[in-house]
């Protein structure tokens, strides 16, 4: 399965330039099997997800959220549209709730900007770290690789998609059958995936 772990749409992310429908149509065209919708500090209601799934039965659509933390880190919580995550504020509370519920946490683009503090320095540690995306350069990816090796955390590629042309560059692939969004926790933590990326011409 070809899976996008990190995507945004115009519905709830002001920085995105793609509608949910156009994102799914593009993902299907690029042979994605599943997409996690991870809006900035917002979650989709069940009825919204159900409507999008009805319109695009050829792809599995899962909820998630990208939470902006007080220290400017961004934390993905995958497999959930639980609004309580938006109220917690502190990373230790968010990660503890996610672990209890079986929702994967991923530190998004950890070295995209220079900053004095990060979860990778002071904790609490997420379940995984984003490796390569279109929104962070190769240097940031190398730093993420070093940090993940030191902390023994999995690395995942993701599109950090805000537009259709951002799809198809970085993703993960798994032979596991991802039926519910919550299953991504075991897939990543058990290493049952490979990082995928577009081949250079």
How would you describe this protein?
The structure is a single chain. The protein contains seven helices and nine strands, in the order βαβαββααβαβαββαβ. It has 201 residues and is an alpha/beta fold. The relative contact order is 0.18. The model has no long low-confidence stretch (mean pLDDT 94).
Tell me the span between the first and last alpha carbons.
Answer: 24 Å
Element pattern in H and E:
EHEHEEHHEHEHEEHE
Total strand count, please? 9
Global geometry: globular
Beta-strand percentage range: 15-25%
Rg, alpha carbons: 15 Å
The overall pLDDT average reads 94
Q: Tell me the helix content.
A: 25-40%
Model regions low in confidence, pLDDT < 50 over at least 5 residues: none
Strand count, sense and barrel status of the largest sheet are:
9 strands, mixed
* Count, helices: 7
For the largest sheet, list the strands in their spatial order: 7-6-5-4-3-2-1-8-9
Structural class: alpha/beta
Short description:
With 201 residues, the chain is α/β, with parallel strands linked by helices.
